Amino acid sequence: MRIWSIPAGRLFGTDIRIHVTFLFLLFFVWLTESGPHGPIYPARGVALVGIVLASVMAHEFTHLFTALKFGVIPKSVVLLPLGGVSMVDETQQAFASTTESWKKDIRIAAVGPIANLAIALVVGAIVLNVAPQINLWAHPYLSSAHLVRSFVWCNLGLGLLNLIPAYPLDGGRVLRAVFSMKTNPIHATRRAVSIGQSIAMVFMLAGMVQYFERAGMESAWVALIGFFLLLAAQLEERSAVFHSVLETVRLEDIMLTDFASLSPADTLEDALNKAVHCLQDDFPVIRGGDMVGIISRQKIVHSLRAEGNGYVQSAMNRIFDVAQKKESLASAFRKLSSRNLSLIPIVEDERLVGIVTLQNLMHSMALLAESRRLRSATD
Hints:
The protein has twelve helices and eleven strands. It has helices at about 20-30, 40-70, 100-130, 145-160, 170-180, 185-215, 215-250, 270-275, 295-305, 310-315, 330-340, 360-379; strands at about 5-10, 15-20, 35, 40, 75-80, 85-90, 280-285, 290-295, 325, 345-350, 350-355. The strands form four sheets. A four-stranded mixed β-sheet has the order 1-2-5-6, sandwiched between helices. Strands 9-10-11 form a three-stranded mixed β-sheet.
């Protein structure tokens, strides 16, 4: 999600990111509204995409404000043309299958469509009374040549579309909440995703058939909606698998048992030389069998540049946390993020038996998530 999206700021501690599919949407608008000699309204095409983005932001920010009231703070929200995909912090019980949880999910999902429908009704009423010459009922409903009309219909369409029980649309989120009453949340998500993908394919096929029969703009938009819905469903499925990995995989399954360590009496030049000849970015600092600190490759280089050659003891971070072999990846993330660390030692009977670095944690999770996704696809 981070690779295919760009940062757009933070709101109440949540990273807001815009998915690159908005660029595809801009290209689609220019292509479908082009004349024989190129785009007719290139600037208005950008404005139309801006209207879609503003409608999606109103939709998702309403979700976010409601989630905050329930104590659910997403780590990030990726905005797509049909809505957003939320990544909840790993330390939260995002997939708790309690009665209060599914009720909460339904309430959070419901406010998004309500916000868009309310905006459409209010703005539409104002337009009908103040500027009746703007024909809200004329075709095409979405066009760069009629931005006010497009704003009303974009919000109306986004609100109605999200009532469809196709995950990850809000109707699909309600469906997942219902499924989670009788099964675990991961299976509920996968069932909802399967239904969402089927509906997305219906949209795409229906749009393409109608487009070739009538070559109408609305038909092209229907096919595009199906494409975006299919993409969003795949992103949500990956998110569900990611959380499944966090909760079920233990640190003993991914910890490094063959690792390099440093002594507090080592010089920074010796430490840099050891760092050059191994793949580690972070090193435990051990004195007489006891771990006394952590130092990173970047810290070694920075200290050498700033203060010259000294000892590891003077540059190491003495604040760290430890974990047990049986703890989950979610627990490791909590400990790493709480103190902004990049390495956590794994101990057993007060003896260091391995380490987990943020680097190998992310790498292992990516591989495990992909493995589980492929395994579920073949089941």
